[in-house]
Amino acid sequence: MRMKVGVLGATGAVGQRFIQLLAEHPWFELAALTASERSAGKKYGEIAKWRLDVPLPDKVKDLKVLPTSPEKVDADIVFSALPASIAKDVEPEFAKAGFVVASNASAYRMESDVPLMIPEVNPDHLGLVEVQKKNRHWDGCIITNPNCSVIAMALSLKPLMKFGIKGVHVATMQAVSGAGYEGVSSMAILDNVIPYIAKEEEKMEIEAQKILGEFDGAKVKNADFAVSASCNRVPVIDGHTEAIWASLCDNPSLSEVRDAFAKFKCDEVKGLPTAPEKAIIVHDAEDRPQPRLDRNAGKGMSVSVGRIMEYADGVKYIAMGHNTIRGAAGASILNAELFCKTYKR
Ligand SMILES: NC(=O)c1ccc[n+]([C@@H]2O[C@H](COP(=O)([O-])OP(=O)(O)OC[C@H]3O[C@@H](n4cnc5c(N)ncnc54)[C@H](OP(=O)(O)O)[C@@H]3O)[C@@H](O)[C@H]2O)c1
User: Is 323 in the pocket of ligand 1 (CB under 6 A)?
Assistant: First the structure.
């Protein structure tokens, strides 16, 4: 049976990606779109300034945009693409009302009873849903995906965990779509690099340890390494590129590291419609990965790595992922698919 789903914040940069990815989804039927009071009551096709390089799906053009309130939404799962400040109040209202909330927003990511998921990396953390329901007495739940830059980094660090990660340094080159449609003015970003993204370094420095931590059935024990991040906005539309330096306890050869990336797979995501064939694609060409060439790998769900080189007591490499697909909408949809598979919905 197909499940009814809604998108909260459907008019924004991430909201539009949700609509693109859900329009033809084999399990989910797009039944409700919400936005702010500014947009509510209008037809989606009239109000949303569609800015993706794929056509606005016909079946959503005439859907009426609803206010973002649980009583107005008829669905089982809602995908949240709301600003964190709004998500903080709204997401619990939906969870209390029985919805599964698959959220992109940062408001609940670091709460100890909220799973922060990358299905190929920590599928078992979904068990936190039971802890959350018990703690909060909600009929529904909140499941989150990481910040868009953290996803590419944490996914690429997972295969390196077997070598023992001592510490990570990362410098990001982040696309403008990561700031939302109204985020960065063209006069500020064209011909420029901006070495500041509000609250980004803080998220980069704490989220990966939770994702790569161990779940004991009651809580997650964070992975024990520090991350130091420097985050930069660059004039790229989609695709975050990251230079990563990982210090390792063991001393693997470069070919062992390459192999760990290339052979990485996770059986739990088998059969999930949004899971790419390969979560990590390794490039050997010396000038890859690049956002324009590689962001759509695996329909935007694969993270590309390359430039694997020796570094002090570890390895350095470049990782690149599509920030509004793998880093946002696609990530939430994959979380919801894992939820449905696990709980046989
Ligand atoms: N962009 C990325 O790459 C990315 C990646 C990962 C996570 N995220 C996170 O995803 C969320 C959405 O980001 P975005 O880039 O898509 O932002 P955005 O383009 O600014 O879109 C925000 C959406 O939220 C709606 N909204 C704003 N205020 C609202 C309110 N008071 N009540 C109900 N709806 C409201 C807007 O509706 P109106 O059109 O009516 O204003 C719009 O649909 C954020 O939490 C962001 O941090 C973004």
Answer: yes
